[in-house]
Structure formats: C-alpha cells, structure tokens
Design a protein that fits this description.
alpha/beta; eight-stranded parallel beta barrel; TIM Barrel; 2 domains; Immunoglobulin-like; globular
C-alpha cells in the first residue's frame, strides 16, 4: 500500500459494535484490521463498553462474559492497529447512560453497576425505570457522573488510545430524569418546590446542563491524562432536521434528549463531532440534506465526521452519501470526513459485508470509489500545537450549582459548579486569572490561577480562597 497515492487528510471511521463478532478474539481482530485497512478506513471505533459490561481490563466494571479470561481485546486491537500498513487509529466507543436491557433477568456479575446501584437509575415522573427497551442511569445523579467519568479516565490512563468516543451521552427523552436525587438537586439549586413537569423550561435546561457538565469534565480530564487523544461523540440528528440555524431549538437533540452538541463544539469541549445522520437516502433524503447542510456550516472551529448509516442504505446510497458529505454546505462550510455504522451491518440489501468494503475501494454502479486511495487522519492544531489552556477547580459537593467567575486581563467567563463541585473552564489564553464565587455568600474571596498552553491548571480540594480588597461582583454579571 505504500506505493499508492495518498489522499487529502480525511476521517474515515468505522464503528465496530460488540453485539456480534468484531474484536472479541485475536482472529476477529486480525480480520477486522485487514478488512478496514484494505477498504480505506483509518479509524476504528470499537464498542468497548456496552451495557455496563466492558471489553477491556477494568477495575470498575465487569468484563463481558464471552471474553477469554486472559484476553484483553482493546490492548490487542491497539497493538495490531498501530502495526498495520498504513496504521489505523483506535478510538474506543463507550456507551454512557444505558446500563441494562433485560427486563426479566439481572446481570450475572454482582459488580455490575445495575446491581450495585439501582438508586442511580433514571425514572419517569410516575417512578418507572424500564423504558420499553432498557434501563438507564440518570445524568442528574452525582454518583452516576462520577462513575462514568472514572470509567473513561481508566481507559485513558491504562491504554494508549488515539481518542475516546462517547455514545448515548444524552437523556432517553423528555419524560426521563426523575431520579429522586436529581429532582432534589434541581429544586435546591433553583429554589423550587414540587416535581417539575417534563416540559418545564427550567427543568429542561437543568437536564441539558447535566449532560454538558459530564462532557466538559471528561474533556478536561482527557486533556490532563492524555492530551493528544481526541474527545468525540456520536450525536443526535433525528428527522426532520433544522430548516435553518434558528430552528436548532426545534430539533430532537435540543428539545427531546437534551444534547446541545453545537455548544459543545463552540465551547471546545468536543474535538470531533460524529453526528449520526442515519437516513435511508431514498426515504429520508430531505432530512439528510437538512442535517448535513446544518452540520457543515456549524463546526465552530472543531472537526466533524458525518455518521452514515450503512445498515439502513443500499451500498450505492452509502457511496452517494460519502460523496455528498465531501461537498460544501450552503454557507460554504465543509466537514473533515465520515464514519460508517457498522462493520457488521453494511447494507439493507442482504448483500455480504465485503460488498461494501470492496465498493469503497473499487466503486459501484458507475460511481467513483470514495476510498480509492488511503488518507491520513486530519491533524487537530489545537492539540498538536496548543495555544490555550484549561482550569479544573475542585470544591465540595456542597457547592453543587454555585456560580463562579473566572477573570483575567480583559477576560470574563462564568459557570456553575457541577454535581461533584467541579468548576471547569476550557480553552483559555495563557496568563493569570482570578476565580471566585459570585453568589455573594463569600464576597471578596478569590484564588489566583496561572494558565499555560496545552496544560490543565488544577485547584485541589482543601485549598482555600484568599481575601480580596474589593467586591468581585460589583460590576454586574458580564460574560457567558
């Protein structure tokens, strides 16, 4: 392959689910590497956390039962992907809030989070936990957020991954989120009484903030542990799609599952967005057009690989979508590549999987081959040559929801502490900053932090504010 012409850098991702064969044995990994490499892919996204069980060596969650005791599929996959020619990147795919999908039987392992923490499950307003297809953890519960953060950090610490990929980083729907602890947090923070209705705007925004807070914390944690690793997410793009920018708040992502992914890109807590534009081109061509147009013109200085549903399209339609994804949007915006779902389900025509992989390199029915030549993975300049840094201050869980401000030379930004008392600011110019609460309960107190490019400045529990000579909130509340 070294003699082939090399294309412009482009993401060519392949989701590899763990519901069937894919990477659970060495022979499966060998086949996957060969198949992906010869088809022109350059990123593998293996599903290494499914429903509270994992396909790597974890101290936090049980290994999947079908794995051999002495086999670590993630480590072997990384080693073989690195040795491939050309090499393949590995971005482990982590299913976040869904935790169990069997109504009649509990998990076999007592280590499973479903068995250990039934109090962490999300509920509807009537107190039900089963959503018709599974059980889910509640994003508003502090224990849930800490556990999921710890799982992701364990992967980043223990494995030389090229990225981390978050899936189901959202609510199941507007009727969910009524875990008792979550509701009590909402009532305390917003000084409310009673149980909110699902369409209460403040309750909706509270739930958006819970999801965003975990993404933000994972981003800061990744930047500290493995700064070169890309943080990506599989994001929602359900039909019918936004007709224009102002219609974003009408989308299911914003209004039904509380996943505000354009803001994640705008804030810079997501390096690579992988919106799941899983639309049958023949039936939902308009939704495909609306969403891809919106996506191309809303990258916010981050990268995007449009997710293509191989499983719901003919091979020809998948090729057409790859070709269309490379075209500029109405406003002139472009994306950096595509990702396909999935390695096991490659078309809706009952054709063998290899037929798609062959067509990617050879073309189909008069269409050009979109992956005719290998392409390198795009470079993220904010990671390879960073000019900005980050702040992660840890306070008490009692500070949950407390407002804070970060102030530097000509710079102001506001946030609130998350459920564990974390106060995080990302992508800050180098320099000295003051951090202080703005609720006036601690007037005149602040800490000083120095931000360096490419680093995370930490403020650890036990460190205290120092007295200031002036009221830091006297000038009002500018900033975000």
């Amino acid at each position: 392959m070294a003699s082939e012409e090399v294309e412009t850098p482009e993401y060519r991702g392949l989701w590899v689910d763990s519901w069937g064969e894919g990477f659970k044995t060495e022979s499966q990994i060998n086949q996957l590497i060969e198949q992906a490499g010869t088809s022109g892919f350059n990123i593998l996204l293996p599903q290494i956390r499914k429903r509270g069980e994992v396909y790597f060596n974890s101290s936090l969650e049980p290994r999947a039962a079908e794995l051999a005791d002495d086999f670590d599929p993630l480590r072997v996959l990384i080693e073989k992907a690195r040795a491939a020619d050309p090499p393949l990147q590995v971005h482990p795919w982590v299913v976040m809030y869904p935790v169990w999908n069997n109504f009649r039987r509990a998990p076999d392992s007592p280590k499973h989070v479903f068995s250990r923490h039934p109090d962490w499950l999300t509920l509807n307003r009537e107190g039900g936990a089963w959503d018709g297809g599974g059980y889910n953890l509640d994003p508003g519960h502090p224990g849930v957020q800490q556990h999921l953060y710890d799982v992701v950090m364990e992967i980043l610490r223990d494995y030389e991954v090229d990225g981390i990929h978050l899936d189901y980083i959202r609510y199941r729907g507007p009727e969910w989120g009524y875990n008792e602890t979550s509701v009590e947090r909402f009532k305390r923070i917003h000084e409310r009484t009673g149980v909110p209705f699902h369409n209460d705007e403040l309750w909706e925004q509270f739930r958006r903030e819970q999801v965003t807070a975990l993404v933000r914390r994972i981003y800061a944690g990744a930047a500290a542990i493995r700064p070169e690793a890309a943080v990506s997410a599989a994001t929602i793009t359900w039909a019918p799609g936004p007709e224009s920018t102002r219609h974003w708040t009408r989308t299911a992502a914003y209004g039904r599952v509380f996943q505000e992914w354009p803001e994640w890109m705008n804030e810079g807590i997501l390096d690579l967005n992988m919106p799941m534009a899983y639309f049958d081109l023949n039936r939902y061509g308009l939704a495909w057009q609306r969403w891809t147009s919106y996506i191309k013109d809303h990258e916010h200085n981050r990268h995007t690989a449009i997710g293509i549903g191989f499983f719901t399209n003919s091979i020809r339609s998948s090729l057409l979508q790859i070709i269309d994804a490379r075209q500029a949007g109405p406003g002139g915006g472009t994306v950096e590549g595509v990702a396909g779902f999935s390695s096991r389900s490659t078309n809706n025509e009952n054709r063998p999987s290899w037929a798609l992989f062959y067509a990617l390199r050879a073309g189909e029915e008069g269409l050009p081959a979109p992956f005719a030549n290998p392409a390198p993975v795009p470079v993220m300049p904010w990671k390879t040559a960073p000019t900005l840094g980050h702040v992660h201050a840890s306070f008490s869980p009692d500070d949950d929801g407390r407002p804070f401000r970060l102030r530097g030379d000509g710079f102001l930004r506001n946030t609130v502490a998350d459920s564990a008392g974390n106060v995080i600011f990302v992508n800050l110019p180098e320099g000295e900053y003051e951090l202080f609460p703005t609720d006036r309960s601690e007037e005149g107190e602040r800490i000083t932090l120095v931000v360096e490019a490419g680093k995370v400045t930490h403020h650890e529990p036990g460190e205290t504010f120092t007295d200031a000579d002036e009221d830091p909130v006297a000038d009002g509340n500018p900033g975000e």
